[in-house]
Amino acid sequence: MAAWVGARRLVSTSAVLGRKINPYSPTPRPWPILPHDAVAQVNTPEQKMLKEKEKGSWKDLTIEEKKAIYRMTFPLTIAEINASNGEWKYVLGGVMCAISVGIFFSVITKQYFGPQPPYTYTKEWQELDKKARIPPTVIG
């Protein structure tokens, strides 16, 4: 069984239950920083050449070649993964719009479609209530 998010398979429930994950399986992993395959994807001739050089001695490789091999396996660094992409601005804007629309409709509903105030709020009722609350004077 697998957990799904939208149309993508997120993680196998066997991984959630504590079973071992096969590192050579083509299924997506629950962590984004590891390579998707056991071996990095080789697409261009330069990458194929670096992959062949990688099989030899690493002392013969330059620092740039080592960085290129690392980038083939791990396309993003931790800092690049954790970097903000500005999505929070759209989420905050959407939440504010939803709140303002809700407030607008509640005010309009109360003002035009709300129930009438009780009759005890009228001036006539309040004056009669004041007269009824005045204690009767004792005529002597």
Overview of the structural elements:
- The protein has six helices and two strands, in the order E-E-H-H-H-H-H-H.
- The protein has 140 residues and is mainly α.
- It has three domains: 1-30, no CATH class; 37-83, no CATH class; 89-132.
- Strands 1-2 form a two-stranded antiparallel sheet.
- A hairpin with a 2-residue loop joins strand 1 (2-5) and strand 2 (8-12).
- 1% of the residues are buried.
Give a quick precis of the structure:
This protein is mainly α and 140 residues long. It has six helices and two strands. 49% of the residues lie in helices and 6% in strands.
Helix count equals: 6
Shape: rod-shaped
Low-confidence region ranges:
13-17
Beta fraction: 5-15%
Oligomer: single chain
Please report the total strand number as a whole number: 2
Number of domains: 3
Largest β sheet strand count, sense and barrel closure: 2 strands, antiparallel
Radius of gyration: 36 Å
Order of strands across the widest beta sheet? 1-2
Distance between the termini: 94 Å
Percent of residues in helices comes to 40-55%
Mean pLDDT: 77
